[in-house]
Amino acid sequence: MSEQFFKRLENELNIIRENNHFREVQGYPECKINLCANDYFQLRRDARVIEGAKIACEKYGTGSGASPLLSGFLPCHQSLLDQLLNWKHKTHGMLFNSGFMANQAVLKHLPGKNDIVLADKLIHHSIAQALLQGTARFKRYHHLDLEHLRELLETHHKEYETVFVVTESIFSMDGDYPDLKKLVALKQDYPFILILDEAHGTGVFGETGGGLAEAMQVQNQVDILIGTLGKSLASMGAYVLTDSSTIIDFLVNRAGEFIYSTFLSPAQVGSAETALKILQAAQEERRYLQEISRSFRKILKINGWEEILYPSPIIPLIIGDPVKTIELRNNLLQHGIMVGAIRPPTVQPQTSRLRISLHTGIKLQTLEMLGELLAPWIKS
Q1: Which of 85, 140, 312, 347 lies at a CB distance of 3.0 to 4.6 Å from 175, suitable for a disulfide?
Q2: Would residue 124 show up in a list of annotated catalytic residues for this protein?
């Protein structure tokens, strides 16, 4: 292979190293306290969920064997999809192999060249990348700033055939969220198609765990709902739900992310459907998760956090310096506590952070101890 090729790659990697943004895949030791994952209800190791995977695997085999338009769409896939539609109160939907692929399919293929997409500034990389690859124009509104969104709608809503607005419910790196009631109210003055990514809201919010849209009673105003099976649902894969058969038919016929990939394995589907049923009845666990999320914000004494009505289990500690971020992460590892060390380009420059992800298996006493470990840094 060309020497110039390797030299170019090494030069770029050296720049990443110099900025302290170099990342590598590594197997972390088994920690006593894992506050790094998105398994908010600790269902990955739940015996019922594991049994659901076993039953599906024994009935349908270890893999789907094909892409969904050949023979890969099995009865277990239809059963899971039906359960998701009932849960989220939508009439049509489809499954994908990952949340990244679902976001790519929706944002790359549905908006056309005469359309505009207005997206929250801190949308997930999978959405931003899809918009760059698509034909529609897009603009970002300030994070959670619905007045800025209104200004953009006022300016552009008559200039394009269709306006799309896309946001996450719970933002994956900040743990905050939009006021969905105010957001959907903008539809009265500026008709648009609302795309909501409920990856981190599903299971955590709503009476049945349907997500932030359920908690804020706006599910019927969400035009396209995207979610993952890999977080609260303790499996892998994703879904796109809507009340429009036309949208689903279009994606089935145009989205290569769906058409050309061997489909989800039965074990993933069986575990997700079992977890879904558990989550629907997990009102007590949801209350506990929100309670400890609120309590930990109070322990950290970060202004305003204790006032959040629906506290999420994602808690960022902004450090800024990527080197100090890694040092603090490693210090906590020595105490048997694993948290995420997040650096650019995943987050904005100068916002490197510890990402603490709570779950129902954590006790308040443990969070108080973690607060004591973090107190010196917070005070400084």
Answers
A1: 312
A2: yes
In the structure, what pLDDT confidence band is assigned to residue 92 with cuts at 50, 70 and 90?
A: very high
19 catalytically annotated: no
Q: Which of 115, 120, 174, 197 is catalytic?
A: 197
CATH number at residue 71: 3.40.640.10
The total number of structural domains that make up the chain: 2
- The domain containing residue 336 runs over which residues? 23-41+283-379
Whether 108 and 207 share a structural domain: yes
Marked catalytic residue, from 77, 88, 231, 359: 231
Q: Which residue has the higher pLDDT, 221 or 26?
A: 221
Whether residue 371 is found in the same domain as residue 290: yes
* Contact of 91 with 243, CB cutoff 8 Å: yes
Neighbours of 263 (CB within 10 A): 25
Same domain, 257 and 337: no
CA-to-CA dists, residue 82 to 76, 89, 149, 290, 326, angstroms: 10, 10, 34, 28, 43
The answer to whether 231 and 40 have CB atoms below 8 angstroms apart is yes
- 148 counts as catalytic: no
**Predicted structure pTM score:** 0.92
* pLDDT tens digits along 335-349: 899 999 988 888 888
Q: How confident is the model at residue 21 (pLDDT cuts 50, 70, 90)?
A: confident
- Concerning whether 231 is annotated as a catalytic residue, the answer is yes
Query: What does the pLDDT look like over 190-240, one tens digit per residue?
Result: 999 999 999 999 999 999 999 999 999 999 999 999 999 999 999 999 999
Q: Which of 64, 98, 103, 172 is catalytic?
A: 172
**Pick the catalytic residue: 34, 38, 126, 312?**
38
CA atoms of 264 and 255, how far apart (whole Å): 16
**31 and 166, same structural domain?**
no
Check if 321 is active-site: no
Q: Are 95 and 239 in contact (CB under 8 A)?
A: yes
77 is catalytic: no
